[in-house]
Design a protein that fits this description.
nine-stranded mixed β-sheet; 18 helices; about 45% helix; about 425 residues; alpha/beta
């Protein structure tokens, strides 16, 4: 098998395992398949895999135009990756078609069908580049959880969800941003969007630990909070990989970090070492925390459907199975209940999810307030320096769908502050 076929066969196998077996692109087995390739092939693999998932709904609409029979899963995945390469990535048609036919033979797929379909599509590829999707094309589980979205929000989501993410970086302080060696579009006095794509891990400022990567929507809720008393006790309950923790540590707060995943704790420790931060780390299930120790500020970045990060994690829509929203809602409620029992009077809980689904966001907060009369919703007032980001505020919360800020892409996110009043 020639190199191009071998790489594309791995593309197919990875996409198939994500689609069929609900795996993540970060799955250890999948990453091991990718890592065995040469550097230039890894770039090709990631490019095709990510774009095949991001644009699979567009590809399916194209495939439906050129096929009459019901296609099997293996045929569907092979055609999706091939259409992505031909139509959207503008790869040489003959190379894609020849490799796809050979892969079809190996997988015992009717290769004549693959050959004829791709040749017909390649002839019309310039017209097909403009194909669009409708909200009705999105997964059923997602549509069922988005009935509260306005027509404008739905249109905006369709416009943005399949675009590539932008790279937003956060600095320890203003001086480190001012001394940054690359071009930035500044989002605040300590953060900005990187204008040119490159390997950031080789930059001197990265190696020195001057900054970290954090999406603007994830960064904003803490950046908009004035922390006046740094002697209070802070806890990040689900800390890894650490973006919000690093924000608090850069403000010299007394912060304890916790995460129940040993694998994620390793990543967190590696990030802390590079950034030269040092603080207490706990590896426990937050639900089982001893309630004798109290805190003044608790961050809960709760597990969720992660639909707000759809650009970074396009497998969310690509997988055959849906997230277990009901199970996630129960976990989110339990995390909030636990935080309420660990918080001092006048303390704050910052509840965050990388989602905009109502059941994971506003419903969670309103249900919590109905059950906990000793709490109130803390008014989310934008600081003067942040008033240009008014569109992020929604009903006294921070809430955004995948959108743009300063013409750069940001995730969908939700944040609410809850204050213990007695």
């Amino acid at each position: 098998m020639i190199r191009g076929e071998r790489v594309r066969l791995d593309v197919h196998n990875i996409l198939y395992s994500i689609y069929k077996f609900n795996k993540s692109l970060n799955n250890k087995d999948i990453q091991n398949i990718i890592k065995k390739h040469k550097k230039e092939d890894i770039s090709f693999l990631n490019n095709v895999i990510l774009n095949s998932m991001r644009l699979h709904l567009h590809s399916l609409r194209i495939i439906e135009k050129y096929t009459k029979k019901k296609i099997k899963d293996n045929e569907k995945i092979l055609l999706i990756s091939s259409v992505t390469q031909i139509v959207f990535l503008n790869f040489k048609e003959y190379a894609v078609i020849n490799c796809s036919v050979e892969i079809a033979k190996k997988l015992k797929i009717f290769h004549g069908f693959i050959n004829a379909t791709l040749k017909n599509i390649s002839r019309d590829k310039e017209i097909l580049k403009n194909i669009s999707t409708k909200f009705e094309d999105l997964p059923k589980w997602f549509k069922n959880n988005c009935k509260d979205l306005t027509k404008h929000e739905k249109q905006n989501f369709l416009k943005n969800f399949c675009n590539k993410p932008s790279l937003h970086i956060v600095f320890k302080d203003k001086d480190k941003l001012n001394n940054f060696e690359e071009n930035l579009i500044r989002s605040t006095e300590i953060s900005g969007f990187l204008t040119n794509k490159k390997d950031i891990t080789v930059l001197k400022s990265f190696i020195k630990g001057d900054w970290w990567v954090q999406d603007f929507a994830s960064f904003f809720p803490l950046q908009n909070l004035e922390i006046k008393d740094k002697n209070k006790k802070f806890l990040d309950a689900c800390a890894a990989p650490g973006g919000k923790s690093f924000q608090l540590l850069s403000k010299n707060t007394k912060l304890v970090l916790n995460d129940k995943s040993k694998t994620r704790i390793k990543i967190l420790k590696s990030n802390l070492k590079r950034l030269r931060f040092n603080t207490k780390i706990i590896n426990k299930n937050f639900i089982n925390f001893d309630e004798k120790e109290k805190f003044d500020f608790i961050v809960i970045d709760a597990p969720c459907s992660a639909v707000g990060t759809i650009r970074k994690n396009p497998e969310i829509f690509f997988r055959k199975d849906s997230p277990n929203i009901i199970e996630l809602n129960v976990l989110q409620k339990n995390l909030l209940d636990k935080a309420s029992s660990l918080l001092n009077v006048n303390g704050l809980i910052l509840y965050m999810v990388c989602s905009f689904l109502k059941s994971e966001t506003e419903d969670q907060i309103m249900n919590f307030l109905n059950l906990h009369k000793d709490f109130k919703l803390y008014k989310f007032k934008l600081l003067d320096k942040n008033k240009k980001y008014l569109k992020l505020r929604h009903n006294n919360f921070i809430r955004t769908l995948p959108d743009t800020i300063l013409k750069y892409n940001v995730d969908g996110y939700f944040a609410a502050y809850l204050k213990k009043i007695k």
